[in-house]
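Lecture 7, part 2: worked example. A protein chain together with MU-OXO-diiron.
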Amino acid sequence: MYNAIRVRESLYWIGGNDRRLSLFEGAFPVPRGVSYNAYLLLDEKTVLFDTVDVSVSEVFLEGLERLLNGRPLDYLVIHHMEPDHSASFLRVLERHPEVTVVTNQKVATMLKQYFGFDGEKKRIVTEGDTLCVGENTLSFVFAPMVHWPEVMFTYLAPCGVLFSADAFGTFGALGGSIFADGCDFEREYLSEARRYYTNIVGKYGVQVQAALKKLSGVEISTVCPLHGPVWRENFGWFLEKYSRWSAYVPETRGAAVFYASVYGHTQNAAEILAAALSEAGMPEVKVYDVSATDVSELIAEAFRYSHLVFASTTYNNGIFVKMENFLSDLQAHNFGNRAYSLVENGTWAPTSGKLMEEKLSSMKNMRKIGETVKILSAVGEDCAASLRALAAEIAADGERSA
Ligand code: FEO
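Predicted complex, written out as structure tokens:
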């Protein structure tokens, strides 16, 4: 049965939720599910904004037909070709051969690659083009690399609705209200929004900043992303989070201590350091076992905190594999602009500190605090004193940069 929800006036949400998916993109755990949003405008012309993932195509198609109620579908606007949004494209075309596909040239190329679609009924738009559909006029804003190169947004005037593709999306299925003002977004979605942004789009901070710049000064009443809640109120609060994440500016003054430990001694060091950080006045301290925490969460927490500590045992004469993977993932996300400290462990030839420093110093604007604390097998009195001294240096730096 269809489940179409009115967003405002003649605009409707016709998406769906998947709460059984274990890995989004085959990589990211989604324990709270994910929504795939599509929208339908019933003006003098009918306009569908994007389609949905194959997992929710039935409910989407039912909603589409119910709302059209026999009217033709005039336009299908495609903002992003990733299959979690384009998978139902051919099914829409089968039902509505009358539809004109409205999109840009890069999307058109991908439509051919994915679906062999090279139909006559398409309208290729460029930046700033407009399309009047009755009371509303669509304007197209290109947002390349927010998340893929073909991405664009649509701004609907005069009502001020922004269709923002992956931007301002979040992991987490929708429950009850589809609106951010219909739930406690900060409690229910913020951590998943951060994990979604940093892992999916985080590499492209420069391009996200460019897209945000295009939107500055634009009067936005409603933001309709492709995942997660629709924004009608207090959008500036979320926009500020996006501005920070995309500029790689820490969101929270605090320390995240990431450790890789085989027999518990490096964990012991991390916990001594974390306790000392807290005692020294660091406002928030978090500790993560990189072997027991999904790397997508580690990435999100690294983006969040101002001060990071990496503590790793030496393994195969290198960095312990889980920590090495995490650091490589940070590099791949163009991560930077942080204060960091290091703790290494090794029984006969500790090398992880030097190797972690090589990786971290290759990232942009990384600032090392204190000397690397070296553990030889287990934490002794001298080592514990060094950890406490390092904690005092980190906390003092946090205080200075507050
Ligand atoms: Fe939700 Fe980049 O697709």
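The chain has 13 helices and 23 strands. The radius of gyration is 24 Å. Keep this in mind for problem set question 3.
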